[in-house]
Amino acid sequence: MSPTVIAEDGDFLVEVIEWDHDQPWINKEPIIRGTELFKVSRKVLMDSSQIFASMLGGEWKEAHQTTVTLKDWTTAYIKIWFQVLHHLTPSFDVPIHAMWHMAKIADCYRFDILKLKD
Predict the structure, then answer these.
(1) Tens of pLDDT along 30-57?
(2) Which helix (DSSP H) or strand (DSSP E) does residue 50 occupy?
(3) 116 burial via Cβ count (<10 Å: 0-12, 13-18, 19+)
(4) For 98-118, what is the mean pLDDT?
(5) What is the percentage of the chain residues whose pLDDT exceeds 90?
(6) How many CB atoms lie within 10 A of CB 103?
(7) Measured at the alpha carbon of residue 80, what is the angle toward residues 10 and 111, in degrees to the nearest 5?
(8) Residue 11 Rama label (left phi>0; alpha psi -120 to 50; beta)
(9) Do strands 4-5 and 32-40 pair parallel, antiparallel, or not at all (unpaired)?
(10) Which residues contact 108 (CB under 8 A, 6 or more apart)?
(11) Are residues 74 and 94 in contact, defined by beta-carbon separation less than 8 angstroms?
């Protein structure tokens, strides 16, 4: 799978796996709705999030990897966050019903929610 390029000079890949919560799990495993791979800047993620700074710059295994996997997020909303953090114009407007998801992602990774305002 070729990545969606968020940062041309990106040095890090983030795989996002989106689960389908509308379908019953099979053998205690979620149904995967889709996946997307993003090419981003490790530094931008670390500068934008205490969580990513600890994960990618600390003693965690991810600090020594070139790819990390995030599970159970809507790929479109993670993409918007990556675009905003990299100072790009999001590829589409966020519908009002999706703002809860955007806020949940911000809370989880400690992104500055006010960055969505611009």
Answers:
(1) 888 889 999 999 999 999 999 999 999 9
(2) helix 50-57
(3) middle
(4) 88
(5) 58
(6) 13
(7) 85
(8) alpha
(9) parallel
(10) 51
(11) no
CA–CA distances in Å: residue 58 to residues 1, 46, 50, 51, 64: 28, 11, 11, 10, 9
Cα four-point dihedral sign 88, 92, 96, 101: negative
Two tokens, residue 17: 């796996």
State the Cα–Cα distance between residues 95 and 112, nearest whole angstrom: 19
Structure tokens at 8: 């041309």
Q: How far is CA 78 from the centre of its chain?
A: 4
Residue closest to 76 by CA, chosen among 105, 50, 52, 56: 105
Q: CA 77, CA 105: separation in Å to the nearest integer?
A: 8
* Cα 22 from Cα 100, distance rounded (Å): 18
